[in-house]
């Protein structure tokens, strides 16, 4: 990362903490690496992004159903999926400063693509770089690095009586991806809702990975949220479904205000043995550069075949019209919600000169803004203004996340709302008491308009949702 990227990254991290978006977890106990908490505004933003995804995936489609499956699943789930034993990353340690790195990330610095490469190859490349005195610890610069070893990303827990804690049969895994629950509820979905193929199941939820590299803020964490959809199809529909979902997902980014030039496709050349196609949506972060936000994968019929084999329950589908019985193939869309929070903050974060002053403003798409409208009485010690402003606040808060603020002068209140990305600020002044109208100030243009309180709800609705 360049010096400038590093600076903007540190600025965004500090900003997120000081303004109540994202906090490092367990800070009073010294913190926990790669675990973060979401403050008031971060939670609201995250929920709005999630809701936009959910609406587009389920409400606006006739062929996708919702699910909320448990984090704990039968341990065989992860044997069947290949995660137990196979969900690993190659790890290199610095013997001096104890920093840990993913070997494939170290090699990427030298344009060596080592994703999914065998450990022996990775160590051969590392040794060559060590011999050429090119390989250094990215943290302290030492050349004293270990060989790569395999590191499991699965997070283990236990269920049952505490005395059974150490028994292997009580080990459960915290799911490393949410789609496992969709496969396990495939049969119940078919039996209860009777959907015809092609159809999809969508869910949002937590996933857990024991990530080696933990220095990328909320981009890569050990606990995170995924928004995944599995689309069940006949093999012959793979290409059409894959292209359809690529288009749908691309359009979602555009509809949510991400400019086309800030996203691009990355096509995977190395695929899992069962997959026939895989693309990532990558976003051009101010700090991290281009990196993955979402994956679209054609997974063949691997998942349901494996669960059929390991559970002994036949997960094939009978097409009533053709009488054909087959194990459905799957096209998956898999997006990281936390990465999207970072993406929308990265995209929105703007420093602007206003006269002699600088303002920081988060130019979120209006429907995603944590707070939609703020209401101010012009003066905090004038009872009639405060009472009227409270009434306006009560009118709006039923429909919108609204804030009431009577601290400091109006200029300072505007700056505070700009910093958290509030699109509209409403001021109740002395004229309001005569004409029942308020001043509405727009975050982006900073222009002010006089609006009758009788029209205020429909005005805000139009300005926020178009
Ligand atoms: N079911 C497929 C699957 O999980 P993935 O590429 O491993 O595919 C999908 O993950 C998305 O989940 C990624 O594009 C990313 O946005 C998000 N993601 C994965 N690991 C993450 C982590 N450690 N922290 C935050 N987000 C992560």
What does this structure look like?
- It is a single chain.
- The protein has about 475 residues and is of the alpha+beta class.
- The protein folds into three domains: about 5-75 and about 155-345, 2-Layer Sandwich (BirA Bifunctional Protein, domain 2), CATH 3.30.930.10; about 90-150, SIR2/SIRT2 'Small Domain'; about 370-465, Anticodon-binding domain (Rossmann fold).
- About 35% of the residues lie in helices and about 25% in strands.
- The chain has 15 helices and 23 strands.
- The strands form seven sheets. Strands 3-9-10-16-13-12-11 form a seven-stranded mixed β-sheet, sandwiched between helices. A five-stranded mixed β-sheet has the order 20-19-21-22-23, with helices on both faces. The chain has a three-stranded antiparallel β-sheet with strand order 5-4-6.
- A hairpin with a 5-residue loop joins strand 22 (about 435-440) and strand 23 (about 450).
- The longest helix is centred in the first third of the chain and has 20 residues, at about 40-60.
- The radius of gyration is 26 Å and the shape is globular.
- It starts with a helix and ends with a helix.
- The mean pLDDT is about 95.
- The structure holds glycyl-adenosine-5'-phosphate.
- Glycyl-adenosine-5'-phosphate (GAP) binds near residues 220, 224, 293 and 295.
- Glycyl-adenosine-5'-phosphate binds near residues 177, 221, 226 and 339.
